Amino acid sequence: MLGGARWLTLEVKYLDRARSFYESALDLSVASTSENRVAFEVGNGELRLQAPGRVPRGGLHTHYAMTVSRSSYDDWYDRLADRFDLREHQFGDTRSLYCYDTEGNCVELGERERRGSAVGDIFEIVLEVEDLPSAVAFYERLGFDVVDRGANRKRVRLTTGEVDIELWEPHLGLADARGGVHVDWAIAARDPSAVSDRVAADALNIEETAAGVRIRDPDGHSLTLA
Q1: What is the enclosing helix (H) or strand (E) of 147?
Q2: Which one of 77, 100, 200, 223 has the fewest CB atoms closer than 10 angstroms to its CB?
């Protein structure tokens, strides 16, 4: 019943500077703009940059990942290595590179079997949580499945099959990344109302919006089922 990421919103202090990073470093195309927001096309979804003020606010120091094709990965590494202090990690037979944007968000580009050289879908978002077992139970009730538990007992990875989340207790992960706080994001859902009913007793708030059903989880993250 749950699908891929529709959007991820990052709160940025300097909108023009952050926009320049994503346009010049990652070649992202602008989907829409307003006075306080810029949205970029990323695969089938959007990456949104938002100035402080609007609620939900958008995530701070968020670690998230987008896809690049296997055939273009080395080119992306060489291109970004000229400008940034890159980190790289091997996951089985796939590689990921890590750099930081102008606002302290850790951007991961992970190689996948896909066509083209452009940056594609958001496939992972890391959320910082206060109580890991409770947060895992909340997202399991929503329909996410646990696929990995960190050896340090500070993180758990869950998936819808199309997008993963990692729930982290406060700590530094790969590339010294941190989980995002008050993250605003959205995923596809076949029946948003039925899904949100599963967590009605524990969510801080649930409301109908023009975009879908928005759930505020116990750690203050906003997830819209669209």
Answers
A1: strand 145-149
A2: 200
